[in-house]
Amino acid sequence: MKNFKVTLTAIAMLVSIAVSYNAFAGGTIVGTVKFVGENPNYPPAVINKDPEVCGAESKPSEKLVLSADNGIKNALVGVKGVEGGEKMAVPAENPVFPQANCAFTNHIMVVPTGSTVDFPNKTDKVMHNLHSYSMKNRPFNKGVPFGGVISNKFSKAEVVKVTCDVHKWMTGYLVVRDDPYYSISDENGKYKIENVPAGTYKLVVWQEALGRKKVDVTVADGQEVVVDFEMTPKKKRRKAQ
Ligand SMILES: [Cu+2]
Fold first, then answer.
1. How many Å lie between the centroid of ligand 1 and the Cα of residue 197?
2. How many angstroms does the Cα of residue 136 sit away from the middle of ligand 1?
3. Model confidence pLDDT, tens digit, residues 49-105
4. Does residue 8 sit within a domain?
C-alpha cells in the first residue's frame, strides 16, 4: 500500500511538471521590418483648419516612418492560423484611442475582438468628426466635441482605418484581433512575438503605405526564430489603354 502511494505521488509530480512545461512552451519570432527602394517621401500635412488648436506648423506624415537605416516603424507583424492558441480577452476597461492636438495619440493600436473602444477629445477646443472605414464592423461617422467621447464596439477581427472629416490629415488604425500572436514594430523596425505555440504558420506583415507580405515560419518550443522582412513601395497601377 505504501509503495502504491509513493507511485501515485510520483505520477502526480510528473503530471505537474508536464503541465508547467506546457504553460511555458512555445517559441519566439523576432526580426526587423526594413524598407527597400526609393522613399516616396510623403509630404507633411498642411494645417489648413483650426491652427489655433491644431498648430500652425505642418505635421510630418505618419504614413511611412523610417529610422536612419530604413527600419519601418508601426508595421504590424502577426502569426496566422494558430489553432488552439490563446485568445485575447475583452478588457474590463475600454481601450482608449484619444485625439489630441488634432492627431490620434496612437497611430496604430491593437484591441481584442469584442472590445468597445473610447475615442475621447479631452484637450482640443474644436469639434472632431471621426469617420471609420471597415468591411466587417459597422462603420461610424460621428462628431466629438471638446470634452466629449464616442464609444464603438468592434465585434469582428480586421484593420479599421479612422480619420477625421474636419482635419483631413488625422489618420489612425485600430487592429481588431482575436489572438495575442502579433507585434507592432518599434522606431527601428524591430518586432518580437513571444509564446507562439510550436508549429508552422504564415507570418504576415502589414504596413499602411506598403501593403502586405507573408512568409512561412516554423516555431519550435523554447527556440527563437529570426524572420526579417523587406518591404518595397507598391507598384503603381498602369492606366487603362
Ligand atoms: Cu479633427
1. 42
2. 24
3. 999 999 989 999 999 999 999 999 999 999 998 988 999 999 999 999 999 999 999
4. no
One domain for residues 36 and 64? yes
Give Dmax over CA atoms of the chain in angstroms: 89
Distance 150 CA to ligand 1 centre (A): 13
Q: How far is the CA of 156 from the centre of ligand 1 (A)?
A: 26
Residue type, 72: I
- The answer to whether residue 71 is domain-embedded is yes
Q: Does 16 fall in a domain?
A: no
Residues at Cβ < 5 Å from ligand 1 ion: 128, 164, 166-167
Domain of 126 in residue numbering reads as 107-177
Which of 160, 177, 194 is at the close of a domain?
177
Q: What is the Å distance from ligand 1's center to 103 Cα?
A: 7
**At residue 240, what is the residue type?**
A
How many CB atoms are closer than 10 A to CB 74? 20
Q: Is the domain of 82 the same as that of 113?
A: no
Within 13 A of 198's CA, how many CA atoms are on the CB side?
A: 9
Q: End-to-end alpha-carbon separation of the chain, Å? A: 89
Residue whose cell numbers read 524572420: 227
Model confidence pTM above 0.85: yes
